[in-house]
From TrEMBL:
The chain crosses the membrane at residues 89-114, 134-154. Pfam families: Ninjurin. Its main location: membrane. Keywords: Cell adhesion, Membrane, Transmembrane, Transmembrane helix. This is Ninjurin-2-like. It comes from Limulus polyphemus (Atlantic horseshoe crab). The lineage of its organism: Eukaryota, Metazoa, Ecdysozoa, Arthropoda, Chelicerata. It is a multi-pass membrane protein. Belongs to the ninjurin family.
Length: 168
């Protein structure tokens, strides 16, 4: 009995034996530095996602939602200040809306910080992960505060004339 050579056949060596190109030959960097193009044998071009571009777009979208909520809270605060202490939950709502606005400003600042991080760099990843967790918790708290604001909420506009005493 002679010694038989045992070889471990990987997909790369199997592909080379069958005349296929290794994956590296299918990848090319396009003119856009955030895009890597992959062309499998079927000839269709596929674009691989750059995590840094994805994170930046996600941060911008979250920031826009934050601006929308900030605008709504400012409008609620204006209405409440116009109503004054005639609103039965005036002090509670002023406090909750103020907390929501302050938290939104802080979260907005964190969006700016996290938007400047390059998640492709290994040294930025732990900080980006921590900031992302803090932002997620902050948004959760803002959501709870705004649910409370809505539940103690602004009266509908039909009651506004009655409350202000402007009945015709």
């Amino acid at each position: 009995m002679g010694e038989e050579e045992s070889t471990v056949e990987t997909s790369a060596t199997r592909n080379e034996k069958e005349g296929e190109k290794p994956l590296g030959e299918f990848l090319e960097i396009s003119e856009n530095p955030h895009s890597i193009t992959y062309q499998p044998e079927n000839g269709k071009l596929m674009s691989l996602l750059d995590p840094n571009v994805y994170a930046t777009k996600k941060t911008i979208a979250q920031g826009m939602l934050d601006v929308a909520l900030f605008t709504a809270n400012a409008s609620q605060l204006k209405y409440l200040l116009h109503m004054g202490t005639r609103h039965e939950f005036y002090y509670l709502l002023v406090t909750l809306i103020s907390i929501s606005i302050i938290l939104q400003i802080l979260i907005g600042a964190l969006f700016i910080v996290i938007g400047r991080l390059d998640v492709n760099r290994e040294k930025h990843q732990p900080r980006a992960n921590s900031l992302n967790n803090i932002i997620t918790i902050g948004i959760f708290v803002i959501t709870i505060v705004n649910i409370l604001i809505a539940s103690f909420g602004m009266k509908n506009s039909d009651n506004l004339a009655t409350i202000l005493g402007n009945t015709s």
